[in-house]
Amino acid sequence: MGALPEDLDKGVFACRAMTPDGPSVFALQGGAAFDMTPAFGTCAAWLNAEDPVAAIRRQGVPATLDVAAALANAHHAARDASRPWLLAPVDLQVIKAAGVTYVRSMLERVIEERCRGDASQAEAVRAEVRSIIGDDLANLVPGSPQAAKVKEALVAKGWWSQYLEVGIGPDAEVFTKAPVLSAVGTGAKVGVHPMSHWSNPEPEAVMVVNARGKILGATLGNDVNLRDVEGRSALLLGRAKDNNASCALGPLIRLFDEGFTLEDVRRAELRVTITGKDGFELDERGLVGAIARDPADVVGQMIGAHHQYPDGAVLFLGTPFSPAKDRGAPGMGFTHKEGDVVRIASARLGALANEVDRTDECPPWTLGIGALMANLARRGLPR
């Protein structure tokens, strides 16, 4: 599976690239590139247009961007600053995430909670949880009368959990994953805080939503997670999720058109591979459609009359993966090591690849909203 979508020339895509002048926004359509920065300034402004796809031919400036070269130049160890490289494909959009939307990840969250973040207990607790709960929760519709009956039974057994509440209850877990503009793109390092001894990637499909709540397209994301930190207390979610370089998005946003719709996202397969410097290898596949809540439902819980995002938002849908393959001593499961290369791929979205490092060894985040606005002003661009 290639790093770019298999049908790149047939789809409509949005991307951001760092150029010698500063961050720029590009559209890719029919194999041609268009610079959207002169008309809109930011990706958020472009995607909030009435018809972003129609705006490409109307307002885009034909560009010579070589997206394959910009992708290759995105690798942190081989970057030529005089040439464009791909950034995370969003800018002013709020970065939101949904959790516990897949049965597998829901059970793993329950395990984390009961382990109190101690990875050495995970395998024993995992077996105990499955003996009581099983895997039949996959057929439950969250918030349904049947789900309410399961809750009653689990409460009676003393096995109810805050994670089961958001997994099969009426309300989805939706939280802010990272600050605006803090996401890294493909090729960049992703960060794991050194306080954590039990961490993993969370490969996810990510919905791209405009200010009016319309889903415009999709991209790939890695919601890097510190399992031991969240396992100690759900109130530490921010510390477990929001750290330097702990959110990766890319490589491109695929916009919906007649050839790619939300139904294609529902049918998509995600593949995650992890390759470590110690020789460790993991290769797993999961279906976006195995999600317990429909993507449109989760987006509807994120944005609406009670929650507005004037610049739009992106929403991580949750992960069908919770790597449990032992890495080292039996029963200790998986945790990241520095130098791990995580690759998240889907045929029609491309591949997001990042190398793991300590959060304090990843490049610091410096280009915030003020810096972006100042750059656009110097260039005489809309802001």
What does it look like?
There is one protein chain. This protein has 383 residues and is of the alpha+beta class. It has 13 helices and 18 strands. It has helices at residues 37-40, 43-47, 52-59, 67-72, 103-115, 122-133, 145-156, 162-168, 227-232, 237-241, 262-267, 295-302, 369-378, and strands at 12-19, 22-29, 32-35, 61-63, 85-86, 94-99, 173-178, 189-192, 199-200, 203-209, 215-223, 225-226, 247-255, 269-275, 281-287, 313-316, 341-346, 350-358. A hairpin with a 5-residue loop joins strand 10 (203-209) and strand 11 (215-223). Helix 5 (103-115) packs across helix 6 (122-133) and helix 5 packs antiparallel against helix 8 (162-168). The radius of gyration is 20 Å and the shape is globular. It starts with 11 loop residues before the first strand and ends in a 5-residue tail after the last helix.
Short summary:
This protein has 383 residues and is α+β, with helices and mostly antiparallel strands. It has helices at residues 37-40, 43-47, 52-59, 67-72, 103-115, 122-133, 145-156, 162-168, 227-232, 237-241, 262-267, 295-302, 369-378; strands at residues 12-19, 22-29, 32-35, 61-63, 85-86, 94-99, 173-178, 189-192, 199-200, 203-209, 215-223, 225-226, 247-255, 269-275, 281-287, 313-316, 341-346, 350-358. The mean pLDDT is 92.
